[in-house]
Amino acid sequence: KLFIVDLICNGAASPAVWKKYLSEKEEEAGSKVASFAFRNRKYFMGRGVLCTFENGKYMECSHIEDIFSVCYQKSFTLRPACYECSFTRLERVSDITVGDFHGLDAIDPAFSSFGASLVLAHSEKGKMYASELGSFGKYKEYSVEQCLQPRLKCPPSGSPLRKLILKDFISLSPSLFKLKYAKLFVAQ
User: 120, 140, 153, 173: which could join 97 in a potential S-S bond, CB 3.0 to 4.6 Å?
Assistant: First the structure.
């Protein structure tokens, strides 16, 4: 009766960076964070953050404007083990693998306009459950080659700048950090 699900993971951020980031948000708002979402649907394909505070205030911006999101997406703030992760491959021991369907916009732009989840079935039980997904919403099948994405092939690449960026993220104010690393915040 066991059904095993695993996730496509881009990596886990440094707890020190996350703690610093949240404390800065709380200082700006003058209140504790009540909730935080990295998928703000106000932005194309959910590429924005929404932070709400206990005092009723909120902060939202696109990923490219958000200091934490930019550093995370560029793999500067990941834990060291993430750069050597042995689970970043297509072969899995689970029944299904789920994650964001990165690259779907190039394969099927009409279907990906609001973002989509990727579900890969690895066992007969996984295939049975995956085939039932159509009853819960829009569902399409693609070849395995079309579903391949970076974290199904290899771990994220480390950067020689990682240690410096981590140090500066924790020690500099957000405005000084953005000034020093302005090139990171240019849309690509």
Answer: 120
